[in-house]
């Protein structure tokens, strides 16, 4: 491990505070456990428990929704009472228990609820410790979130390869057990590396400030954020099918043979995080060049472009399913789908989080950003409803439906661009006719 000294004399790893490595690895293993279990969930319910497909989609959508609903309350509890470190340890322990409970068929619903509960404490508390590692004027701070986000995708990339392979070839319970072990690894790293994290400080706002939930927001900002939540909810109802109905099609409608080797169906779930890792540097460089030339799109324009790109990805699947309606489509179609879908994802999700972060009043930063998770919650619920139609229509028609949903979301996002420019012009004295060249933080996707 490369250890150096920062300008302030503090020891660093890879040019960053040593605590960032601890948070990075903890997050990586937590994501490994979460996405490892999620890669198996729909297959486990439909193939092992023989739950009807439409019901499985509802269960999947409800679970993923709850996993992003509980952080809204978990963050408040951590800030007000538990503290970030205790919340991470408690949440990680509860999640590990939930993953191990998945090895018992009769405990399915209890296990899913347990994981969602633990995620509520863990998810908002771990990344919120990054700021404490840096001085306010430290130039390394913006890149810290990029480094941290890589951990999300490394964990998401490895999870289907390891947990998915174990589940498919040796038994579903081995895959779930591996996810639980991953969470234990993350907890162990966090506990051992705790000495590299700064002392925790909690500034409790005055009661009148806490009670004034929307103090600091004007009507235009609230309307913009509410409309944005609606558009993103619609978008995620299509996007969330990646781990749901698209996963089912990968098993039923795709020829997974590569020569004499049959590609495990869960391995395709690794494509999304892998492509995120590979594409992010190129997109950031492209946006930086556009910003320097004054041609960069505004955040809402980027989000609209992203939704349209995702629509194109589903059009591709609809085409593949249509031309192969009496057989199986080549797995190359699925790889192309993930490449296009992930490109659109990188345009829409990080920019959405960035808008919420920028428009947050000073004392409501955590609460405002937490409301971004509410869009993931509602979108996941909507995704469960949309997924229930999979068994009622042909794959070509179904994927066309998803493309249509994404187009409607893109239209809504494009309509919100003008109001958003006006809000940013008032709040930050920006030119409403110009694109926003601020770097946006990365979302947990």
TrEMBL record:
<feature type="transmembrane region" description="Helical">
    <location>
        <begin position="329"/>
        <end position="349"/>
    </location>
</feature>
<dbReference type="InterPro" id="IPR050171">
    <property type="entry name" value="MFS_Transporters"/>
</dbReference>
<dbReference type="InterPro" id="IPR018456">
    <property type="entry name" value="PTR2_symporter_CS"/>
</dbReference>
<feature type="transmembrane region" description="Helical">
    <location>
        <begin position="369"/>
        <end position="390"/>
    </location>
</feature>
<feature type="transmembrane region" description="Helical">
    <location>
        <begin position="396"/>
        <end position="416"/>
    </location>
</feature>
<dbReference type="Pfam" id="PF00854">
    <property type="entry name" value="PTR2"/>
</dbReference>
<dbReference type="InterPro" id="IPR000109">
    <property type="entry name" value="POT_fam"/>
</dbReference>
<dbReference type="InterPro" id="IPR020846">
    <property type="entry name" value="MFS_dom"/>
</dbReference>
<dbReference type="InterPro" id="IPR005279">
    <property type="entry name" value="Dipep/tripep_permease"/>
</dbReference>
<keyword id="KW-1003">Cell membrane</keyword>
<comment type="similarity">
    <text>Belongs to the major facilitator superfamily. Proton-dependent oligopeptide transporter (POT/PTR) (TC 2.A.17) family.</text>
</comment>
<keyword id="KW-0653">Protein transport</keyword>
<feature type="transmembrane region" description="Helical">
    <location>
        <begin position="108"/>
        <end position="126"/>
    </location>
</feature>
<keyword id="KW-0571">Peptide transport</keyword>
<keyword id="KW-0813">Transport</keyword>
<keyword id="KW-0472">Membrane</keyword>
<feature type="domain" description="Major facilitator superfamily (MFS) profile">
    <location>
        <begin position="19"/>
        <end position="421"/>
    </location>
</feature>
<feature type="transmembrane region" description="Helical">
    <location>
        <begin position="304"/>
        <end position="323"/>
    </location>
</feature>
<keyword id="KW-0812">Transmembrane</keyword>
<feature type="transmembrane region" description="Helical">
    <location>
        <begin position="57"/>
        <end position="78"/>
    </location>
</feature>
<feature type="transmembrane region" description="Helical">
    <location>
        <begin position="147"/>
        <end position="167"/>
    </location>
</feature>
<dbReference type="InterPro" id="IPR036259">
    <property type="entry name" value="MFS_trans_sf"/>
</dbReference>
<feature type="transmembrane region" description="Helical">
    <location>
        <begin position="220"/>
        <end position="239"/>
    </location>
</feature>
<keyword id="KW-1133">Transmembrane helix</keyword>
<feature type="transmembrane region" description="Helical">
    <location>
        <begin position="266"/>
        <end position="284"/>
    </location>
</feature>
<protein>
    <submittedName>
        <fullName>Peptide MFS transporter</fullName>
    </submittedName>
</protein>
<feature type="transmembrane region" description="Helical">
    <location>
        <begin position="173"/>
        <end position="192"/>
    </location>
</feature>
